[in-house]
Design brief:
Helix content is 41%, strand content 11%. By secondary structure, it is α+β, with helices and mostly antiparallel strands. The protein starts with 8 loop residues before the first helix and ends with a strand.
């Protein structure tokens, strides 16, 4: 593997354009963003080394044995994010890039192409969300670009953005440096635009970097053995931080499938899954992991050994079944109302796919009346599994393996919800909730990932298979300081109003897209218009725990009453055992356990304690205005409770009564800046 004579960037670009340089199927996709591309060009301008490259010389008589791809030139996050396939003619020698694809593609985009990424807060299907931008350098900039930590100010800009010019700004399109054949021409450009010597020196340096300096240093492997090349590729790339392990494993799969192109199949499936319903954010990790699970692979960890030739060929042979199961699982998630905005963990699709695969279910399952109870079991398990924290993070492979075992043995006749929950509990990932968790869930805010799942569990009457949205009962537009003052809200209550408006007690699910007319309408008026029939109107109010919907000055009373009703409903739905109280226990000094808890039950026959006395005791040593959470109040040791502790639910009910106001002297119920309920000392 000799070290070759270095070449210029221009020479490398020409070889990419002629398809002398190609990408082998074992390579991953282009993953660099605009900032990373800018930093590469800054490094080149500053004379920093950019690393060597590793190429593989493929003889013409071997090219038809492999699949090759072209370099990305005009990146578009929605329409063209993938490397296009190349049809290399038989007999033509090519050079495949084993290490350095990201850098070469960045040069290709910066000097020959463009970059179109999705703008923040715009929908993925909006064509205006992807403006085409080209790389520019500010020839008048002096000093470091602190935003990107660059010595030279490179930016991807639209044509309109690049027109901006003043005493410190002149954006030069980097691609135009390729049109300059002699170094002296750069000074003609700066003179024509009256830019001065600084700009001339900067542009000349860019010319030197791109056209004159031999900065591409590379090794070239000539052995034609794919096995040897694959081994080199793994050794070179497995230690590279930017290369995700799933990229590496996908590369291995691509090299070992016989009839299909693994990269195209998996990327196409991921794209299709993410277009299901309102859209998901699944990735190839979920697909590859699902493949291992559905194949019955004993070890489903992402290791090179688990993607051996036998497993990859089995995955290719079973691909149609794997793809069908994942598509049906994604549609199930969509029918349950989930999307990228409301699904906290994409890994939940894996056990769903395995279940549909085991039972050989088809799309008819989604609508058959005879399967309605089974779908409801899945929905209830799924909602609890995404609402509960800590399920789909660490220990994921162990969890998926255990869930697969349960499904393999007990899912032939229906979804084994109870058995799955037992297995999760055995692994320390049980779906049991305590009162503190319930109170924390009830304080979720608008836009939180779990908010939809919680509302769907509380109020299942909405058909989320169609368009729906999370709606403010009392419209958000009414909750500005100016409008609240105008409505006569006391100044000391305004901050509480602003906090409560976005919390769960003021949220509901409504069918259809967001109702613009409803945004400023108070709920009592809107309900009368939306449900003119009194029976239908009362049914809507009862189903959603909305009560009488008082005028705005009584919003806090509405909020507290509805939150209390939500709490009772959620306690029932989650089967919360109110006699079991989680108590934080301080770990011993030599213990590494920082989260251990013990559960204590009230002593049978013990006298009824005064919860107010316990709350007062908790604040006795606190400074005025000090804040304690309900959890901290609960864990206080008081003379009233001795070695026992009151329930968090009892404390919450005393501080935030369903009707009236708190009667505990010397404390003021409040919510801290993190949204946790508690109280302050008066």
């Amino acid at each position: 593997m000799p070290f070759q004579a270095p070449i210029t960037i221009t020479t490398a670009l020409e070889r990419m354009a002629r398809h002398d340089y190609v990408l082998p199927a074992i390579q991953r996709e282009f993953v660099w963003g605009p900032d990373r591309i800018c930093k590469l060009f800054d490094s080149l301008m500053r004379g920093y080394p950019i690393g060597s490259f590793l190429f593989w010389r493929v003889n013409g008589d071997k090219v038809k044995s492999y699949t090759f791809y072209d370099f990305v030139r005009t990146y578009h996050a929605r329409n063209s994010p993938h490397c296009p396939t190349l049809d290399v003619e038989r007999g033509r020698d090519v050079t495949a890039i084993l290490d350095g694809q990201q850098r070469l593609t960045a040069l290709n985009i910066g000097l020959r192409g463009s970059y179109a990424d999705r703008l923040p807060r715009m929908r993925h299907n909006n064509p205006l969300a992807y403006p085409t931008k080209r790389l520019h350098i500010n020839l008048l900039a002096q000093g470091h670009d602190d935003e990107l930590e660059l010595a030279y100010h490179f930016r991807f800009l639209t044509a309109d953005e690049a027109k901006s010019r003043n005493e410190t700004t002149f954006w030069f399109p980097v691609s135009e440096i390729r049109d300059i054949s002699e170094g002296d021409q750069v000074f003609d450009i700066t003179a024509r635009h009256d830019l001065g010597n600084l700009a001339g020196r900067m542009l000349f340096k860019l010319y030197e970097v791109v056209k004159r300096q031999t900065l591409i240093n590379y090794f070239e492997e000539e052995d034609q053995s794919l096995e040897k090349v694959l081994n080199i590729f793994i050794r070179v790339n497995s230690g590279a931080v930017p290369l995700s392990f799933s990229d590496l494993l996908l590369s291995i799969a691509t090299s070992q499938w016989r009839e299909r192109d693994a990269r195209e199949e998996i990327h196409a499936l991921v794209d299709d899954l993410n277009r299901t319903g309102q859209g998901f954010s699944l990735d190839k990790n979920s697909v590859l992991k699902s493949g291992l699970v559905l194949l019955g692979k004993g070890d489903i960890r992402f290791k090179v050994d688990n993607f051996d030739r036998h497993t990859m060929l089995a995955m290719e042979e079973s691909w149609d079944d794997i793809e069908r199961a994942l598509r049906l699982a994604a549609q199930l998630l969509s029918d349950f109302g989930f999307s990228s905005a409301t699904l906290p963990a994409s890994s939940v699709i894996i056990p769903l796919a395995h279940y549909t695969h085991l039972r050989q279910l088809d799309t008819g399952y989604l609508r058959r009346t005879s399967d309605a109870a089974d779908r409801e079991d899945i929905r209830r398990w799924l909602l609890r599994a995404v609402i509960k924290g800590g399920i789909w993070g660490s220990g994921l492979d162990t969890l998926l393996g255990g869930l697969r075992t349960v499904l393999d043995t007990e899912a032939r006749n229906g979804f084994p919800r109870a058995a799955l929950e037992r297995e999760m509990a055995r692994q320390g990932k049980g779906l049991r909730f305590d009162p503190i968790e319930v109170d924390e869930l009830l304080d979720l805010k608008y836009g939180a990932t779990k908010t939809f799942a919680l509302l769907a569990l509380l109020y299942p009457g909405i058909d989320v298979r169609n368009a729906y949205h999370v709606d403010h009962v009392y419209p958000r537009s009414r909750f500005t300081r100016a409008r609240l003052r105008a409505a006569g809200i006391p100044e000391e209550d305004i901050s509480v109003y602003l906090d409560r408006v976005d919390r769960l007690g003021n949220l509901q699910l409504l069918e259809g897209t967001e109702n613009v007319d409803k945004r400023a309408t108070l709920p009592a008026e809107w309900v009368g218009l939306a449900y003119p029939n009194s029976v239908a109107r009362q049914g809507y109010l009862d189903r959603n725990d909305l009560g009488e919907l008082p005028p705005l000055p009584d919003f806090l009373r509405f909020y507290d009453q509805r939150r209390a009703q939500m709490r009772e409903r959620l306690l029932r739905l989650l089967d919360v055992d109110l006699s079991v109280v989680p108590v934080t226990r301080e770990p011993a000094e030599d213990s590494g356990d920082r989260s251990s808890t013990e559960r204590r039950s009230p002593v049978p026959g013990s006298r009824r304690r005064d919860i107010a006395a316990h709350i007062i005791s908790a604040f006795s040593s606190q400074a005025p205005h000090a804040f304690l959470t309900i959890n901290e109040i609960r864990n206080h040791r008081s003379a009233e409770y001795g070695d026992e502790f009151p329930s968090a639910g009892a404390i919450s009910a005393r501080l935030f009564p369903a009707t009236g106001s708190c009667t505990v002297p010397g404390v003021i119920p409040d919510i801290n800046e993190r949204g946790v309920r508690g109280a302050r000392k008066a």
